[in-house]
Write a structure and sequence with these properties.
The protein is of the alpha/beta class. It contains 20 helices and 12 strands. The strands form 2 sheets. Strands 9-6-3-2-1-12-11-10 form an 8-stranded parallel beta sheet. Strands 5-4-7-8 form a 4-stranded antiparallel beta sheet.
């Protein structure tokens, strides 16, 4: 089935609050616009809490969700914030310096007290009942967060009994650190409640949500604290070996990401139990998954923490065995046997991809990713050129969250790249961005994802992330689609067989 998705991070959703929200009238309006535009699914980025510099790929939990995405109006409607409190909150709502930016720092200072009130309004008995079913992931998150607030330092520097998870010390956390534990757990309960409402709205419109699963987690995270044996850590919890990328034509010294790397031998001995739990949790939030940095599941690059990536090496990853384990988990969720090939997965297989990675991807039948911005260098065999796609089993996009917008790419591209692009464009569409959108939709790829910025023909001010930089990323706020934008993309989705044609008028 040919289909089109729209890429828009949750924080970028337009609306009346300073950041996009999980639930509420603005979110439902956005879903309506997806339907009107002929889209089949919404692709989001990861939504972990407390990402470093707001980066959704470096959060403090692979299971919890950032509570800043809770819709305050929805909380007020549920009586978790009083009418007077919400009225005061609206009067004090931070005004961003620019309407297309999320004011993260001011947002947290303003929203945290309101979330405190909502969490306090959750009855203890209700929370305890929720933890009976969700404690398999929520307990460790709430415990870690409570201790983080208490000690204000990384878990590796906590008192040894808590750092090393002495069973008695861990069992006492909900009582000894009651306020922090209750807040962290209660907010996740409220997140789950709003997320369930959002998923219901999505399903009612015939849409799907595509989530994103990063390969790595942060060293100072609830995941590392609660699952030390899963990672290559020192006796005190520090990272002895860290992840990164080797030197290449773009980075002379390589890249250091500083994420701890997995002990895949230990993970395999457990039947990849943590990964199965992680996949189960994510599939409770979304309908399908984009696997980030798929290369790392074939082989991963790492190096000693106190050395340069130049001293690094490649090590075999878990390979097919991990996805066999995820298929077992998915079989339990579906109530029927499923093979890895039936997992609702697409993979990000960009960058240097060796033959072993290609064999793993193709052996599992996973659609890989084709980025049109990479396709116009004049190489007659460039796999990202629409004429060279391998057939329908791939996902084509004009760009990812790490790319320039299509308009920004074209404006900055060398003349010879624009020449090759214009040869394919053939004078169609009134902008390069719209021409690239058309190319993606007309391609043989069964799955196409379009960043909203490219549908709207926005320049690089609307860029989500510039890799290798720290500040100014993960804060773009989208405008609403205008009627003309919706009509154009709906017609194009229909023309390319990615959305049903309008019903013909009945004749008597």
């Amino acid at each position: 089935m040919r289909r089109t998705g729209l890429l828009l991070p949750l924080f970028s959703l337009p609306g009346s609050e300073p950041v996009g929200t999980i639930a509420g009238a603005d979110t439902w309006r956005f879903l309506d616009q997806l339907v009107e535009g002929g889209f089949s699914f919404w692709q989001i980025l990861p939504v972990p809490p407390d990402g470093a510099n707001e980066c959704p790929y470096s959060g403090t939990s692979a299971f919890a969700v950032e509570p800043m995405y809770l819709g305050l109006q929805a909380l007020a409607d549920d009586g978790l914030i009083s009418a007077a409190e919400w009225a005061r909150g609206q009067r004090g709502m931070p005004v961003p310096e620019s309407a297309d930016r999320v004011p993260w720092q001011a947002l947290r200072a303003w929203k945290d007290p309101l979330l405190d009130r909502a969490a306090q309004a959750v009855p203890v008995a209700e929370l305890d009942a929720w933890l009976e079913s969700e404690g398999w992931w929520a307990y460790d998150w709430a415990a870690w967060w409570a201790l983080k607030q208490e000690f204000r330092k990384g878990w590796q520097e906590w008192p040894s009994a808590l750092r090393d998870r002495d069973p008695k010390a861990v069992s006492e956390i909900p009582q000894r650190y009651r306020a922090g534990f209750h807040r962290a757990a209660a907010l996740q309960l409220l997140v789950q409640r709003q997320w369930s409402a959002m998923r219901q709205q999505v399903a009612q419109r015939g849409l799907r949500v595509m989530g994103d699963i990063p390969l790595y987690v942060a060293g100072d995270s609830s995941d590392c604290w609660a699952n030390r044996a899963l990672f290559q850590l020192s006796p005190s919890g520090g990272s002895e070996i860290v992840a990164g990328a080797p030197p290449d034509a773009f980075t002379e010294d390589g890249q250091r990401w500083d994420n701890p790397v997995y002990d895949w031998t230990h993970s395999e001995r457990t039947g990849h139990a943590w990964w199965r739990q992680r996949f189960r949790r994510l599939m409770g939030l979304v309908d399908e998954v984009r696997v980030d940095h798929f290369r790392g599941f074939s082989a991963y690059f790492s190096f000693p923490f106190d050395q340069s990536p130049r001293e690094g090496w490649w090590t075999p990853g878990p390979g097919r065995g991990l996805f066999d384990a995820l298929a077992l988990e998915y079989s339990e969720l579906q109530g029927r046997p499923c093979t890895p090939e039936q997992l609702p997965v697409v993979v990000e297989d960009l960058g240097f991809i060796d033959e072993e990675t290609v064999q793993l991807r193709d052996g599992l039948g996973f659609p890989g990713t084709k980025v049109l911005q990479f396709g116009f260098d004049g190489d007659s065999a460039n796999p990202h050129h629409p004429c060279h796609f391998p057939g329908p089993n791939c996902l084509a996009c004009t760009g990812t969250h790490d790319n320039q917008t299509a308009r920004g790419w074209y404006e900055a591209a060398p003349d010879w790249v624009r020449h090759h692009f214009d040869l394919m464009r053939g004078g169609r569409e009134d902008s390069a961005a719209r021409a690239m959108v058309r190319m993606a939709l007309e391609s043989p790829a069964a799955h196409v994802v379009l960043p909203l910025q490219d549908v709207l023909n926005l320049d690089d001010r609307a860029r989500v992330n510039v890799p290798g930089t720290v500040h100014g990323n993960w804060m773009w706020r989208a405008p609403w689609l205008e009627p003309g934008d919706i009509s154009w993309i709906r017609a194009l989705n229909q023309q390319t067989g990615r959305a049903p044609l309008a019903e013909s008028p009945r004749t008597s």
